[in-house]
Structure formats: structure tokens, C-alpha cells
Amino acid sequence: MKPSAFDYLRAETTQHALDALARGGEGARVLAGGQSLMAVLNMRLAQPQLLIDISRTAELNTVRVEDAHLVVGAAATQGSVEWRATLADEVPLLAMAFPHISHFQIRNRGTVCGSVAHADPSAELPLVLTALGGEVVLRAARRRRVLPAASFFQGMLMTAREPDELVEAVRFPLQRPGRATALPNSPRATAILRWWPARPP
Ligand SMILES: Cc1cc2nc3c(=O)[nH]c(=O)nc-3n(C[C@H](O)[C@H](O)[C@H](O)COP(=O)(O)OP(=O)(O)OC[C@H]3O[C@@H](n4cnc5c(N)ncnc54)[C@H](O)[C@@H]3O)c2cc1C
Q1: Residue 84 alpha carbon to ligand 1 centre in Å
Q2: CA 167 to CA 195: how far, in whole Å?
Q3: Ligand 1 pocket: which of 14, 118, 170 to mutate (most atoms <8 Å of CB)?
Q4: 98-141 pLDDT, tens digit each
Q5: Mode of pairing for the β-strands spanning 143-148 and 166-173
Q6: Rounded distance between C-alpha atoms, residue 76 and residue 79, angstroms
Q7: pLDDT by residue (tens digit) across 136-168?
Q8: Which of 118, 112, 165 is nearest to 143 (CA)?
Q9: 27: pLDDT confidence band, cut at 50, 70 and 90?
Q10: What is the DSSP-derived secondary structure letter of residue 1?
Q11: Is residue 193 part of a domain?
């Protein structure tokens, strides 16, 4: 099956994308990496009139540390965050999660914010963001709000995002001193459990 007809707009700037979202209303959809959206369109589970492509919006392609958070912009791919040299020290749970997300070709195109916006309950990144107490930055043409991940996710493929809002960024808290992270039953978890009683935080 092929998608139904739609108009395509490549957003040059964040404001360009926000203005298009405001004009397009419920008939507009953001296109980030397309890894989930294209399947939805091909199956005609959604039939938007307008796709707003943010994948080459340079000002959204950012990954930075700010206010004790790793802040990932809407156009930053999962791969670009995964390959950040300091990630394992900054947000170790995120570094551990990436290899579990499909294979690298998908992570090379799929964005962190796209996975969060899509809100698939089986996806790794919404889980990591919620478990760490992270935040979602939502921006519309004339307003901006920051929601805790736990309030943003409302159910399967359902979020608190309004149709005119872009997930501008997501904010993962940096690992705090005295904390440790490990996947259950891993050698690292065993090592931490051995170490922990001897050195309380
Ligand atoms: C073969 C395959 C295997 C996969 N396996 C896994 C897996 O094991 N684990 C996992 O977690 N994921 C998996 N995924 C999903 C993958 O991680 C996607 O990249 C991700 O779900 C969506 O990111 P995207 O950038 O491609 O978003 P898109 O597909 O472009 O968009 C997804 C949805 O979010 C909306 N959206 C995107 N960005 C924004 C934004 N900034 N603001 C507002 N709305 C936005 C779109 O309008 C659309 O509704 C898999 C995908 C494929 C194709």
C-alpha cells in the first residue's frame, strides 16, 4: 500500500516548522527520521495533508549539557547521541539502552525526540526518559512548556502534545555522583551490588 497524497515542506528553521504546524493544525505531521511514521503512512493508519520535515533543520540538530541535563534536540539522531564519547559517564542508562534499539541503520536515521513523540510503549527511549525522571520540551509558535516524561506519556501512542506543538528537545538528567547504573543480572550489576554495602552514598 502507498501513502495517501500529502504536501511536503522542509523546515529551514525551528520557526518555519512551528508556523507550518500552527497553520496545518490536525492535518500536519512532523517528519523526523521517518522510521515509524513512514510505516504508519504506508498502512494509511494516518493520512496527514502536510508533512513538515525537520531532519535537516540545523538549529534542531543539537546535543548539549545544560543545567545538569543532557539536552537532545529534535533533529539529533539516535546514532549521534549513542556515539557521543562522554555518554556512558553522562547518562549511563541511555548508553546501555541504545544497542537494544533495532540495528544501527535505524538509529542512524531515527531521532531520540521522534521515538519519544511516537510513544510506543515497547520502545527503549520513552522508558529510559521516564525511569530517569527526564523532561520533554514542547514548543508552539507562541508558547513553550516543559513536561515531566511521566506526564507527557498518556498511553499507547498517546501523549500530552498538542497538534501545533513540536517536541523541541528532551532532557535526560545527568548521572549524579554516588549513583550507579546497571542492567539487571549483568556482570556490572553484580559488581555494583558487591561494592555498594561497603561504600554507601
Ligand atoms: C525495523 C525497525 C525496528 C525498530 N526497532 C526499534 C526498537 O527495537 N526499539 C525502539 O525503541 N524503536 C525501534 N524502532 C523505532 C525507531 O527507534 C524510530 O526511530 C523511532 O520510533 C521514531 O523516530 P523517528 O525520528 O524515525 O520519527 P518519525 O518516524 O519521523 O516520527 C514518528 C512519530 O513522531 C512524530 N514526531 C517525530 N518527531 C517529532 C517532533 N520532534 N515533534 C513532534 N512530533 C514528532 C511524527 O509526526 C510521527 O507521528 C524501530 C524502527 C524500525 C523501522
Answers
A1: 20
A2: 39
A3: 118
A4: 999 999 999 999 999 999 999 999 999 999 999 999 999 999 99
A5: unpaired
A6: 8
A7: 999 999 999 999 999 999 999 999 999 999 999
A8: 165
A9: very high
A10: -
A11: no
Which CATH number fits the domain that encloses residue 37? 3.30.465.10
CA-CA distances (angstroms) from residue 17 to 27, 46, 61, 139, 174? 14, 20, 14, 10, 29
Radius of gyration over every alpha carbon of the chain, rounded to an integer in angstroms: 18
Question: How many domains would you assign to the chain?
Answer: 1
Q: What's the 102 CA to ligand 1 centre distance in angstroms?
A: 11
- Domain of 113, in residue numbers: 7-177
List pocket residues of ligand 1, CB cut-off 6 Å. Answer: 29-37, 74, 101-102, 106, 110-111, 113-115, 117-118, 123-125, 166-167
The answer to whether residue 158 sits within a structural domain is yes
pLDDT over 90 (residue 200): no
DSSP-derived secondary structure for 95-154: HHHGGGSS-HHHHHH-BHHHHHHHT-TT-HHHHHHHHTT-EEEEEETTEEEEEEHHHHEE
Identify whether the C-beta of residue 112 lies closer than 8 Å to the C-beta of residue 146: no
Q: Whose alpha carbon is nearest atom 10 of ligand 1?
A: 123
